[in-house]
Amino acid sequence: MSTTTASATASAASATATEKTGARNADAAELITGARERIDALDDRIIGLIQERMAVSAVIQESRIASGGRRVNLSREMEVLAHYRDALGKPGTSLAMTMLELCRGRI
């Protein structure tokens, strides 16, 4: 590969990376690409943890119902909502509501 061809290929790759990331230079594009890969890995872990939480919640609900109780324990849900709100602020409440709905279904 000639120097001119290699340079053109590198420029095209850099242009693609900057277009894909919205960065204005190759260094920023590289940083953003790496950070996005880390976010994707974190998202995969979060999804796995939510799926695990859903399974544990199902066990709790089944046990509660089998013992004659209700499927949902509202006082416990209020504790969970407060925990998320305290840790993450007002958006934490919305996040907790979504997670609770995933774990127990709509009430």
From TrEMBL:
Q: Where is the composition biased (Low complexity)?
A: 1-18
Taxonomically, the superkingdom here is Bacteria
- Which SUPFAM superfamilies did the record assign? Chorismate mutase II
- Residues forming the Chorismate mutase domain are 26-107
Alphabetized InterPro entries for the sequence: Chorismate_II_sf, CM_dom_sf, CM_II_prokaryot
Q: Offer one Pfam family short name for this entry.
A: CM_2
- Enumerate the GO terms in the molecular function aspect: chorismate mutase activity
The family database entries (SMART domains) matched by this protein are listed as: CM_2
Give me the segments passing through the membrane.
none
- A Gene Ontology biological process term: chorismate metabolic process
Q: Where is this region: Disordered?
A: 1-24
Q: Protein name, please?
A: Chorismate mutase
Q: Which organism is it from?
A: Streptomyces indicus
> What does the organism's lineage look like at the top?
Bacteria, Bacillati, Actinomycetota, Actinomycetes, Kitasatosporales
